[in-house]
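User: What would this chain look like folded?
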Amino acid sequence: MVPEGWLKEEVSFFGEINTGRQRAPSFTKGRLRPYLRVANVFDGYIDASDLNTMMFTDSEFSKYQLKHGDILLNEGQSAELVGRPAMYIGTPEECGFQNTLVRFRANHRADPEYALQRFRLCLYDGTFQAISKKTTSIAHLGTSRFAKLKLAWPPLAEQKKIAKILSLWDLAITTSERLLIISQQQKKALMAALLTGKKRLKEFDRGWIEFSFKDIFKERTETGNSNLPLLSITSEGGVVNRCDVGRKDTSNADKSKYLRICIGDIGYNTMRMWQGVAGLSNLEGIVSPAYTVLTPQAEVDPLYAAYLFKLPELVHVFYRHSQGMVSDTWNLKYSHFSKIKWFFPEVSEQKAIASILSTADQEIEALRQKLACLKQEKKALMQQLLTGKRRVKVEAA
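Assistant: Here's the prediction, encoded as structure tokens.
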């Protein structure tokens, strides 16, 4: 049902819709001009920092030149991103676009900012996926299908009010995203300073001692515990329950040779330790034999070791000690891991450093949760405002 005062028409009723210029080596006339190939989105607007160049004649370029306020949608993409919209903000002023994009240029019936939000909702609620044509793993939006898509639009004044409300939410989301990035960068800087001894905590002044990994990390090779839950080791989440990973279970039915991992152990992916895929376990269970399980000894704090194994300098050492002909087969078995030597502070300093980094992680996680809530709340508000289920008051002119 169309809300009172709204108009349900094809998208083409509210703006001009075009596909971009096809790139072909036969185009040799004219002069080179910058053009966009994909809608690189930055805060909802086009990031035109990485442009290609293409030959355009003056008459051709007038047809394909982008203007401030144009909305570009990805014509061919993965199903979840097909039709992803972004607004061109006029930088650079002379720029064209390729046929991998569809352009919407609002007319007098549509507010460009409102159109951007409305097309975002079409991406979120699956409207674009529904009208797209699938070919292998790529979905194509289609200029004509997009142009004929019928949507309900409010009067122009209401469009502007809705767009203004949603833009405030976008600002809050953008601010939270930047705070998250800053917090992540600060944590990296802390790791680089504290885990290498470049910055010492006031209460500690003892020298660091070099240990061989074989003396402070013992390999746990216990098998025959098929009754324990199956765990997995991920790059970001560390050691987690296998059913929480969200991927198809490809583990063997016979788990008698799977390795036991206990609380306080560190597990790492034997074939991806050169990428830092390791984590401290807060669970007891079993993991695939493709992992290596370490038991930290008295000279090392487990949480400190878990942070240390993410330090780029040490990850590079893991890379140098990995064996194999190509990256697909590189592995760091315990026999090679055990030969690594590294300097460690006393355990009390390790614990203090780990506590500081843990606090930083808690702050990052709080920001992540806040950001996720903001995005979810904005999507819910979009569903209400952009469909007319919830109306806004527009002051009379």
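The CA atoms of residues 270 and 290 lie 6 Å apart. If you want, I can go into more detail on any region.
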